[in-house]
Specification:
Elements (H helix, E strand, L loop, with lengths): L20 E4 L8 E5 L4 E6 L10 H13 L5 E6 L3 E3 L4 H6 L3 H18 L5 E5 L2 E3 L1 H7 L3 E4 L4 E3 L13 H5 L6 H8 L2 E3 L2 H4 L5 E2 L5 H10 L5 H11 L12 H8 L4 H10 L3 H9 L2 H14 L4 H17 L2 H11 L17 H6 L7 H8 L7
Helix pairs in contact: 1-3, 3-4, 3-14, 3-17, 8-9, 14-17
Length: about 375
């Protein structure tokens, strides 16, 4: 039986080191982005919405984009979250209430941040302590070095609310070994602690109570050479226990190598993976079929192409019945069973799946923003 990974979330506190000078990017009392510069040409960007676990809205996405542009010539950049999370992803309530130009602007600039980090000339280090979900995964995944702790909880839970995995999920899920990426994308399951490293989402594993010292040593080091950065990271790295999914990878490969979402269901039933099958049966059939098609299409796409495709998908989902329904039953009428547009996979018309991939208004704005940047194949 395939695992249902625990969704319990714990967070660790993260503080700004005293030896840095701090400057706010905007004049509000609680700026969503805080930047810190050291005296030896290094910088720290802090996602600063701790009251909502650093959820991403348009203001945060735009502020992060400007900070990334500003620090391109620094010798080292650290990205972290304030409070008890790295980032819990898109601010779903805000997105639900802002299904307009402001909402689409958030996705455009968030995608631009992901592409900029992926092609950044400066070594980036993500400190992924605590909640790292959805858009937070996208921001951290393309940093050169990614540090997880025992408190890290990572996942892309979009299908659980009738949505689709975005934030470059099309790119990194289809490039994971075997079919683990497909499993995580479709089920929305969570990885914890050292499993985040074992699955490839992090490069190093450090105790949360040592993160402040790690950050201090990285910033105080006279060198930003790759070998020196890696030596410091290695000094703080803990030994990894075995991957908790190790014994399930073969079954995940068998079930999620299917040629359709319907076949995934059949294989799960044949292998006795009842818990995973029952989980998927509760989710939006449309979201599952669109996500499956999304993964199929993205295997040979560049990162930029994936981000542009995801923009159209996101815009489509914002206008489709199931995403508002998922938000309603998750955050408003809590505990109520969602009424999806279609009850089963077989009921979902092919043209409904196809329409989700059509170009949407606003995509051209994103294409123009991303066009001058580099790309990953």
């Amino acid at each position: 039986m395939l695992p249902i990974i625990r969704r319990n979330v714990y967070w660790a506190m993260s503080q700004t080191p005293k030896h840095l000078s701090s400057r706010k990017l905007c004049s509000t009392e609680s700026p969503p982005i805080i930047t810190n510069e050291s005296s030896n040409d290094k910088a720290v960007i802090t996602l600063n919405r701790p009251h909502v676990h650093n959820c991403i809205n348009a203001t945060l996405a735009c502020g992060l984009y400007e900070a990334l542009k500003k620090f391109e010539k620094k010798s080292l950049l650290i990205i972290k979250g304030a409070g008890q999370a790295f980032s819990s992803g898109g601010d779903l309530k805000w997105i639900f209430q802002s299904r307009n130009a402001e909402g689409f602007k958030m996705f455009t600039y968030h995608n631009a941040c992901i592409l900029k980090i992926a092609t950044y000339p400066t070594p980036c280090i993500a400190l992924m302590d605590g909640f790292t979900f959805g858009g937070g995964v996208g921001l951290s995944r393309f940093c050169k070095y990614r540090v997880a702790t025992e408190r890290t909880r990572l996942g892309m839970p979009e299908t659980l609310i009738g949505f689709h995995p975005n934030s470059a999920a099309s790119y990194f899920f289809t490039r994971m070994e075997g079919r683990l990426g497909w499993y995580l994308a479709l089920t929305g399951e969570t990885l914890e602690g050292s499993d985040v490293v074992r699955a490839g989402f992090a490069t190093h594993y450090c105790r949360s109570d040592r993160l402040e010292n790690l950050e201090r040593d990285l910033l105080n080091s006279p060198s930003s050479e790759e070998s020196e950065v890696e030596n410091i990271l290695s000094e703080y790295s803990e030994n990894l226990p075995e991957f908790s999914l190790r014994d399930e990878l073969e079954k995940i490969e068998e079930c999620f190598s299917a040629s359709s979402m319907e076949e995934v269901f059949t294989k799960l039933e044949q292998t006795g993976s009842k818990k995973t099958l029952e989980l998927l049966k509760q989710l939006s059939p449309t979201a599952l079929k669109v996500t499956f098609r999304q993964l199929e299409k993205s295997g040979n796409m560049s990162l930029k192409q994936c981000l542009n495709m995801e923009y159209s998908l996101t815009a489509s989902f914002l206008l489709f019945h199931d995403f508002p329904e998922g938000i309603r039953t998750k955050f408003i009428d809590k505990g109520k069973k969602p009424r999806w547009a279609y009850s089963t996979l077989t009921e979902v018309p092919e043209d409904v799946v196809n329409k989700h991939f059509e170009t949407r208004p606003g995509e051209e704005n994103q294409r123009k923003l991303l066009e001058p940047m580099g790309d990953l194949l």
